[in-house]
Amino acid sequence: MKGTKEFPQCGFSNTVVQILKSLNVPFETLNILENEMLRQGLKEYSNWPTFPQLYIDGEFFGGCDITVEAYKNGQLQELLEKVMCS
Fold first, then answer.
1. For each of the chain's 86 residues, which pLDDT tens digit applies?
2. Up-side HSE of residue 47: CA atoms within 13 Å toward CB?
3. Which of 22, 64, 82, 85 has the lowest CB atom count within 10 Å?
């Protein structure tokens, strides 16, 4: 993400942080603004051009728009519950 969970540095990153905090799930962040190689590497790895990028259980889930939609329809909560229980 751009920034950290304590200090998101763009509105999209802040949105994802607020969603994850509202779900009371543990999560970590990496500030891609601090490392250009990491930034480019993640874009290539995920084949996703924008940030933030959400990974759940090591798998790329999506960006802000996908995270918001999955949160609204309950898919995100369901997936996170499965991961937390396994």
1. 999 999 999 999 999 999 999 999 999 999 999 999 999 999 999 999 999 999 999 999 999 999 999 999 999 999 999 998 87
2. 1
3. 85
Binding-site residue positions for [2Fe-2S] cluster: 10
DSSP, collapsed to helix, strand or coil, labels residue 47 as: coil
Break the chain down into helix, strand, coil percent, rounded to 5.
55, 10, 35
Q: Which residues are annotated binding-site positions for glutathione?
A: 2, 39, 51, 64-65
Indicate the annotated binding residues: 2, 10, 39, 51, 64-65
Query: Assign residue 62 a region: left if phi > 0, alpha if psi is -120 to 50, beta otherwise?
Result: left
